[in-house]
Amino acid sequence: MTPTTAPTPIPTATAAPVTAVDCAIAGGGPAGILLGLLLARRGVRVVVLEKHADFLRDFRGDTIHPSTLEVMDDLGLADRLLRIDHHVTTTLQLGVGDRHLTLGDFSRLPSRFRYVAFMPQWDLLEFLSSEAARYPTFELRRSSEVTGLIQEGGVVRGVRYRDAAGVHELRAALVVAADGRRSVLRDAAGLRPVSSSPPMDVLWLRVSRLPSDPDTVFAQLGSGDFVVLLNRGSYWQMGYVIPKGEDARVRAAGLPALRARIAELAPVVAGRVGEIDSWDGVHLLTVEANRLRRWHRPGLLCIGDAAHAMSPVGGVGINLAVQDAVAAANLLAGPLAAGTVTDARLAAVQRRRELPTRIIQAFQGQMQKMVLGPALRGEGGIASVPRIVRMLGRIPLLRDLPVRLIALGVRRSHVDG
Asked: For residue range 260-276, what is the model confidence (pLDDT) as tens digits?
């Protein structure tokens, strides 16, 4: 697993680490790193704590939608980001038997970026962290695992974290939990998400891709399962989607049965399924969807997956996280610089981002109910696809609506300052 571009080294401080900052961010994912960059460019002293030594983790969200590319453009970074090796798609296709429906056409979007870009997330994160490191008020501490909150009088005053040298305290006017769907800080603050029940889990795997293969993203519905193929240039990233909790059954049936089923669903790669030669290359994603009723406590704000875990439908997770970071920076940079972050300001971030999150999750829920649910219950065939979904393939104006929702989101934010 190797980055497609050489990471730019992050400068290592020679002095003792600072122990107090304006903002401490837990989690070096897209939300955390981008928020750190946006705050630092406004003069806010920020430290991002990332528990891993690097960003090299496979089968993370790799889709960069137009809304995120527009944010990069606001920062003057889009053209440089797109010099990193990536692949684009302008259409989304759904296969049902021997028929194919075009569910999305990004070429009609009202945006400079009329496509979805696929780029390994580690490349995106190395790029953003290198850009953030240009600002003297930004610091990324790798191999630094957040373990809890510092709370005094009901107010969050900082975090505790562990690195190779031991356990430390980092005090901050604001702590941001961007530490994912298993957020340590969210739990420490007593914030509990409300969960929905997506009907599926995903087994991620990969096979090689030939230049003659289709240059698009497509899904093929089966009867009781389906497969999604994502073009990664030299290989296909494949999601084999199964009913919730069926991973043990699939593994018990054995690799030959899995290879045969994938070959049946996706004939384009039938001659290469032998490359799936070990369960070590098959990774389970237990699909979850949830959101917090309250995203904040005095001194603490949750964003990204810590505030709302998204279903993989539409691949929108990164883009929701990016929008959270932009909204948070727009609303909080000034108060942080002035040392006057109030709980009302944190509530304003939630108000800005909660409705878009609810709308996208409702859209994902309807797609799961109308298309994915019937397929996973074994109701295969074109007749199982709702009429409104079939109409998307024939009426461009109808097809534009879900595409705009996926690509641009709702009430998207642009970078202030």
From this structure: 999 998 888 999 999 99
Inter-residue contact 323 to 353 (CB < 8 Å) = yes
Q: Do the Cβ atoms of 32 and 176 come closer than 8 Å?
A: yes
Cα 198–Cα 204–Cα 208 angle in degrees, nearest 5: 145
Q: Residue 379 and residue 69: Cα distance in Å, rounded?
A: 38
Q: What is the mean pLDDT of the chain?
A: 88
Look up the pTM and report it. 0.89
Structure tokens at 136: 């003297």
Strands (E), 257-373: 283-285, 290-292, 296-297, 300-302
Q: Does the pLDDT at position 5 exceed 50?
A: no
Report the first-to-last Cα separation within the chain, whole angstroms: 37
Residue 3's identity, in one-letter code, is P
Which residue type sits at 228?
A: V
d(CA 394, CA 404): 17
| Residue 273 to residue 261: CA distance in whole angstroms | 10
User: Helices 30-40 and 317-338 meet at what angle, rounded to 10?
Assistant: 30
User: Could you tell me how far CA 141 lies from the centroid of its own chain?
Assistant: 21
